[in-house]
């Protein structure tokens, strides 16, 4: 089991980033909100993945009392247009990301996160010109729960007394002598 836990939504962002960096070689992974702060396609990079949390509505608490969320996430796979076959490389990067994301809980405890649902890949955005790029987005929703478990585990009960009796309307059920222990 993973030593990572989800204590806040940004922990999911960090887990996604770390897993993508482990699984896909020669890429950068950044926050979608930081896009544009530098040129796409840094020297030696096959592409860049931008993590976008589009919306994160709440869910009811889970069985352990943790607060839940259902995040709509897009992983934008961006390739600089200076690459030889940028449109195809963007599709290839999106396919690699989709393979990683399928059934992925990003190294987080499965009690705190469910596998992605509605996984799909489609053109994302692009920009023409020398500093331009091609992009495909891998989108999905993923339910997760944050914080410590608030419900204690059920206590283990041992040595319960076993009692049996014959049901007879004429018996006085308040009389303890009519009860016999089971063998």
Topology:
Elements: H1 9-23, E1 27-31, E2 47-55, E3 58-59, E4 67-80, H2 86-101, E5 117-123, E6 133-146, E7 163-164, E8 180-181
Parallel strand pairs: 1-2
Antiparallel strand pairs: 2-4, 3-4, 4-6, 5-6, 7-8
Summarize the amount of helix as a percent range: 10-25%
Q: What is the CATH superfamily label?
A: Phage tail protein-like
Query: Which segments are poorly predicted (pLDDT under 50) over 5 or more consecutive residues?
Result: none
Secondary structure: number of strands: 8
pLDDT average, as an integer?
A: 85
Question: What is the structural class?
Answer: alpha+beta
Q: What is the correct CATH architecture?
A: 2-Layer Sandwich
H and E string? HEEEEHEEEE
Percent of residues in β-strands: 25-35%
- What's the CATH class label? Alpha Beta
Return Rg in Å: 27 Å
The name CATH uses for the topology is STM4215-like
Oligomeric assembly: single chain
For the termini, the CA-CA separation is 43 Å
Description of the molecule:
- This protein is α+β, with helices and mostly antiparallel strands.
- The protein has two helices and eight strands.
- The chain has one domain (9-146): STM4215-like.
- The strands form two sheets. Strands 1, 2, 3, 4, 5 and 6 form a six-stranded mixed beta sheet that branches. A two-stranded antiparallel ribbon has the order 7-8.
- The radius of gyration is 27 Å and the shape is rod-shaped.
- The two termini are 43 Å apart.
- The mean pLDDT is 85.
